[in-house]
Amino acid sequence: MTTIGIIGAGHIGSQLARGAVKLGYHVVIANSRGPETLEELIAELGPNARAASAPDAAAAADVAVVTVPLKNYTQVPVGELAGKIVVDTNNYYFERDGHMAELDDGTATVSGLLQAHLPESRVAKGFNSIEAASITTQGTAAGTPGRRALVTASDHPDAAEFVTRFYNDLGFDTVNAGTLDDSWRTDRGQPAYGAKGDVEEITRLLALAKRNGDTE
Predict the structure, then answer these.
(1) Could you tell me the residue ranges of all domains in the chain?
(2) Which residues fall within 8 angstroms of residue 104, CB to CB, at 6 or more apart?
(3) What secondary structure letter does DSSP report for 15?
(4) Is the pTM of this model over 0.85?
(5) Confidence grade of residue 105 (pLDDT, cut at 50, 70, 90)
(6) Domain spanning 3-207: which superfamily?
């Protein structure tokens, strides 16, 4: 059975853990405060979930999800995630993270920073543009008219394919925005960010995105 290691147990991480357990995954989840602080969540999730340190969650993972504040991305374990798919849920909030010049001027992307930190992993952007509670409450069956679509982007096709399958299992369609260089199109402040639309609508909104530093 596939184990999903979740690094970060905030709103998104906890909801993804709930969704993953319902889908039959094993979950190993970590936060910055220590496994003992996750006892209540683990009791809720049941026997297919356990709490661990971040390095242990990374080591146990077949696929990992990184959902920590962007300012802490360099603390994500590197060696333990080598060779693995890593789903990055992050967004850049300068009020929380402090200003990052390469994001302010559009010369880097949020998920691209994580990929550079994890050079032997295969990073895909995912779940950055949906409210946490909606992950387990707004999914619908494949083929449902107007089914909500979420965005992914990756330099690695198998990583994007995993996110696409995970989205579908949770009840969402996928729009692939391209490589990590294109992943900014679903960032905070862009038209697609947080949008509740189907594939056609999200594709349209992605095309309207304007990158920081653009002069046109």
Answers:
(1) 3-207
(2) 94, 212
(3) H
(4) yes
(5) very high
(6) NAD(P)-binding Rossmann-like Domain (3.40.50.720)
56 within 8 A of 28, measured Cβ to Cβ: yes
Q: Which of 73, 199, 202, 194 is nearest to 128 (CA)?
A: 194
Cα separation values, 85 from 8, 94, 96, 105, 196, Å: 16, 27, 27, 28, 26
Q: Structure tokens of 33?
A: 């405060």
Cα separation, 143 vs 172, whole angstroms: 10
Rounded distance between C-alpha atoms, residue 40 and residue 198, angstroms: 35
Flag whether pLDDT at 215 surpasses 50: no
Structure tokens at 214: 């653009």
Buried b (16+ CB within 10 A) or exposed e, 191-205: bbbebebeeebbbeb
What phi and psi values does residue 18 have, to the nearest 5 degrees?
-65, -45
Taking 3-state DSSP, the helix, strand and coil percentages for the chain, each rounded to the nearest 5, stand at: 40, 15, 40
Distance CA 20, CA 45 (A): 10
DSSP for 78-133?
A: SGGGTTSEEEE-----HHHH---HHHHTTSS-HHHHHHHHSTTSEEEE-STTS-GG
